[in-house]
Prior knowledge:
This protein folds into two domains: 64 residues; 192 residues, Rossmann fold. The protein is built from ten helices and eight strands. Helix 6 links the parallel strand 3 and strand 4.
Amino acid sequence: xxxxxxxxxxxxxxxxxxxxxxxxxxxxxxxxxxxxxxxxxxxxxxxxxxxxxxxxxxxxxxxxxxxxxxxxxxxxxxxxxxxxxxxxxxxxxxxxxxxxxxxxxxxxxxxxxxxxxxxxxxxxxxxxxxxxxxxxxxxxxxxxxxxxxxxxxxxxxxxxxxxxxxxxxxxxxxxxxxxxxxxxxxxxxxxxxxxxxxxxxxxxxxxxxxxxxxxxxxxxxxxxxxxxxxxxxxxxxxxxxxxxxxxxxxxxxxxxxxxxxxxxxxxxxxxx
Length: 272
């Protein structure tokens, strides 16, 4: 019977032959995932014989990775802001780049004990709102998404993180009226142009939901819908924090100014 080290090396070789740049790290991570030997525990057990279940599970995940399924999709979760968020087919996979949204938002929520009222438009996994609620323990928030499947996943994540009692979940589109006035509205909406689909990695375009990625021919459709509604829902001193794609800052700023915004915190992300 091969050892765990043997099957890890075989997996690494297959990934390397297929052109995966981090084949060694990925093979080890996948083996840790299927054996449960995480956090360095695998290193002390690599000479153990692999069980038949280890072989079957590892073969399955290597095959999925060779088909360009993202590691987080294989595992079923992704870490964001030091918290773990389960995924489903209706949720965008959280990216570390989007943590800049949280860093930016917290600057405008300076009182760690204030009862801030927050709105996350297009919540997906709930990662943005959950991170803010985690950092501001007296705050409450509304998680809005047009996808029922995404909202259900966000609620499950908030429950796991023991934040669900401070969150309300609303199924609605960007432009739908939302009750309440908010200290801060945050969003990572779709902003990729539809003609850019061929430029995306297969891990993205093949696994993230289409409606969480693409926003019309110019990538601005979600902003056109959400910014007027956000303006109506912000307190006079409130702040709108948005993620957007490269080259969109000026167009989004003009959309905001047209409905009376005197400040927009724009977090520009160059790629998905």
